[in-house]
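Review form for a predicted model. The reviewer records the input and the model, then writes brief findings.
Reviewer: anonymous (R2)
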Amino acid sequence: MAAIIASIGDFCVRRRWLVLGLWLVVLVLAAGGAAAFAKPLSSELTVSGLQSTRTLDQVEREFGAGGDGGKVVFAAPAGTKLTAADRAAVNTLARSLAAVPGVRSTAAPALSPDGRIGYLTVGLTGTPASAATTDGIAAAMTRARTAGLDVEASSDLARPVPSSSSSEIGILIALAILLVTFGSLVAAGLSLVTAILGLGISIEVIHAATALVSLTSIAPTLAILLGLAVGIDYSLFLLNRHRQQLLAGAPDVRASIVLATRTAGSAVFFAALTVIIALAGLAVVRVGFLTQMGLSAAVAVLIAMLVALTLTPALLGLAGMRVLGRRTRRRLAAGTLAPPRPHARRWAGFIVRHRTVAVILSLLVLGALAVPVLSMRLDLPDDGNSPATATDHKAYDLIAEGFGPGANGPLLVLAQYPAAPTPAGEAALVTRLGAIAGVAAVLPSGVRGNDVLLTVVPGSGPSAAATTTLVQDLRRPALVPGVTLLVTGQTAVAIDISAHLLHALPLYLGLVAAFAFLLLLVVCRSVLIPLKATISFLLSLGAALGCTVAVYQFGRLGDVFGVGTAGPLLSFLPTIVIGVLFGLSMDYEVFLVSGMHEEHRRGGPAEQAVVAGYAHGAKVVTAAALIMVGVFGSGVFSGDTVTAPMAFALAAGVLVDAFLVRLVLVPAVMSLFGRAAWWMPRRLGRVVPSIDLEGTGIASGSTELTRVT
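Model under review:
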C-alpha cells in the first residue's frame, strides 16, 4: 500500500497543475449538480417499525390527526386578560394565517383557563414549510403584534434561525494554530486550502444526492464539522513529515514530497479508512436519519482523504521550499539552523520516570469526568431546547404557562374495541385514563368504526422522566379490559426512538471496540497495545459523554456554553460520538505508537523507544488535536440545538483523548509494559497479516530520497 500511495504522490507532484485543475473541475461539477438537482431536506426524524410510528400513520389515515403543522401562540401582556379588542385581533390573525400559501387549515383558537394565553393550530400542506409560507406567517404575526398582542410560533411555522457561522470561526482558529506550529503562512494556508476545497466538494455532493434519496436536515451537520477538521489534519500530517525531511537536509524537494506521501500518507489512508468504517457502521443501529448522518460524514472524510493524498503533494510541489519560513530557509542554506528544542522529549522522560503516578492520576481524572454518564438520559430535541430568545422557545414557554407543561407534548391514544363502542364505554375509558398518575387531561378526539382516538395531556413536559413513565403506564397490558391501547404522537415517537437507540448502543459500542482491537492487532502486531488502546478509547468516551451530561443535562456551566434549557441529551449523540471519537483516537494512537515501534525495531531500550517515538509524533498530534478542538468547539456556539451538544461532546472527547490519554497515559503505560508491549504469541503471529503502515520497511530515508529523480 505504501508503494502505491508513493506512486500517486509522485504523479501528483509531476503533474501538479493538472491535479489542481481536475479538483477545481470536480468542485464546479459538484456545485452545478447540487444547484440543478438538489431537493429540500426533510425535518422529520423517524424510525420505521416502531409501534408509535405505525400507530401515528394509522391515526393520520383514519382521523387526519397528527399531521403536519404547528401552533401560533398569542397572549395578553403579563397580569392582564385578553380583551374584546384582543379577541378581534386574534380572529384577524386566524384569517390572515388561513390565507397564507401552504397553510391547509387554521383551527378555532384555544384559550387558557385564566383568559390570558391562547393558540391557533395551523395545518400545513407539507413539511418543511416553504420560505413563502414562513414569511407569510411571520407577516401575519407582525400585524397582530401591532395590535398589542404577544405572538410567537412553534418551530414548524417559524422562519429558520440562521446559526452563527462556526465553519469560518473554526478556520480562523486552525489558521492561528498552523501559523504558530509552522511559522510559515504558505504552510498554514496550504492545509486550509485543501481542507476548504474538500469540504466544499463534500457538501455539494451531499446536497446533490438528494435528487436520488431523501435526506434529513441534520444529515450534513456532522459532515461539515468532521470534513473540515480531518481535512486540515490529514494535510497537516503530510506537510509536517515533508518539513521535517527538509529541515533534516533532504537534497530534493520532489523526493521529499514522495517520501512524505509514502510514510505519512499511509497513516492518513489508514486513519481515514478507520473513521469511514466507524461512520458507515452506524447503519447497524438501523435508524434512517442516523445512517444518513454517518454516510454523509463518511463521504466527507473520504473526499478529505483523497484531496490530502493528491492535492497536498501537488501544492507542496508548487510551494517548493517556501513551506519553510523565510528565516528558516536562510539559516538552513547557511548551515546555522539550530536543532529543535527537546520539549517533547523532556516531557516524555518526565512521564516515563513517574509512570506509575501518571497512570493513577490519569485514571482518576478520567473516572471523575465519566461519573455523570451514570445519570445520562436521552431524548430528541424540542422547542424548549431552542435559545431562549427564539420565537419557538417563547411559544413553548407560553403554552406551558397557560395550559401546563404537558400541552407541549400531548399523547395520542388509539383505543381499539372488538366492536363499535357505546357512548357509556367511551366515557368510562376517558375516566379510566384520567385516573392514571401523571395525566392532566383526557380529551375525546374522534371515533371511526371500532377505534376511538383520545388526546392525553401529561402533567409533565415532553422531555421529563415522568412523561416517559406515563407512556409506559398507558401501554400496560389489560389496562382497560377488552380494549387495546396504542400510544403515539410526537412525544411518544421521540421516547421510542430514544429507547431504540439506547438499546442498540451496547451492540454498536461492542462492534467498535472489537474492531479497534483487531485493527491494532494487525497494525502493531501486539496483544497488549490493542488491549490498552481499546480500554483507553472507552475511557476517553466515558469522559467525553460525562462532560456533556454535566453541561447539557445538569446545566453546569450552561451559561458559559450557551445552553438554553438543560435537559436530556440528543438520543443519537452517544452513537455519533462513539463512531467519530473511535476513528480519531485510533489515528492519534497509531501515529504515536508507530514511532515507538520504529525505535523499538532498531534495537533500543524500551524506555528509550517510548521517549523517542513520543518526541517524534507529539508536536503534530498536539497541533492536530488543537485544530480538532477549535473546529468542533466553534460549533458549540452555533446556536443550533443539534450541532452545539454534538460539537461539545466531540471537542471534549478530542481534548481528553489527545492531551490526557495519548500524551500522558499512553507513554506511561507503554513504559510500564517495557519490551512485553510488542509481544505476540507465535501461532497468532503466523495468521495475523503484517502491514508496513508508515513505510518503515524503507531501508533508510536518505536512500529513498535519492531514488526519485
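Findings: DSSP finds 23 helices and eleven strands in the chain.
Further findings: The chain has a mean pLDDT of 85.
Recommendation: see findings above.
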